[in-house]
Amino acid sequence: MADFGVVEALQHGNLSGIMRILLLALAASAALLAATEFPEAEISNGTVTARLYLPDAQNGYYRGTRFDWSGQIASLRVGGREYFGQWFDKYDPKIHDAIMGPVEEFLTDDTSPGYQEAPVGGNFVRIGVGVLRKPEDRAYERFRTYDIVDPGRWTVRPAKDRIEFVHELKSDLGYAYRYTKTIRLVAGKPEMLIEHTLRNTGKKVIATHQYNHNFFVMGEPTGPDTRVTFPFALKPKEPLSSNFAEVRDGKLVYTAELPKGPSVFTEFEGFGPSADDYDIRVENRKARAGVRIQGDRPIHKMIFWSIRPTVCPEAYISLEISPGTQEKWTYRYTFYEAPPTP
Asked: Which CATH code fits 38-342?
């Protein structure tokens, strides 16, 4: 109907008619998008309130193949301050990073279990995603979205102040697991725990690295009011990717507000073999928002990336899980009111 109306308006030179039809079409599209509902849940401990999107192979907010589908936090508020939200311009459920919150990825030597030995058309495994198909004979591309052969089985158990995700996956590749992640708000405190258990139910060893991308969104652009603090002496492995930031007195600070487009990226060294070095603080002092992230495993690799809307410390840990065994690890987020900019 709308296409016929545009043709008719063109034939009669009726530009106002075209404009009305286009506005109606845009309004209809906006209404359709607004009407789209993604499976979600809300948890709160009275101090922290978080809204999460839930894994769903048909209707989930995120259906890409890079990140673990569980634990996507679209909003987390403490004392009127926001810590997560949309940081990207274009949304599509299958874009590799069209996702919000403290999201996680598993990587095995920059690839995925079973990928290197899989033939073209064969299958491989993405932990927290499912069994995927290898489309061609080329290196694994982590920013690519692969076809999902089997998304596995998700079980979600929400409660007032926590939510548990369980992903069970079997394959004929020798890889199988039961992965449990619990997002839990600590009673009476501005704290959140992300608790993990990965049990190897297959026949092959699961050797992987895991990290949290974080994607903090604190309501103000990344700039001189932003600082990231580490407990060890920062040593950039390569120079920072832009001159908008520098390492100063053990902190990453910004010399100017990041415009849209440029990023600050590097890999840091300087951490030791103790989990004590997994203790990172991110602050936006204009927003008065601060968060401390602690892990109970030693850091394997430390990547840092930020653009104008988001700041992302990405600390990797190592896991090696023999068949019939499991590993557990936890990340603790403590939210606080940051001091004002001096």
From this structure: 2.70.98.10
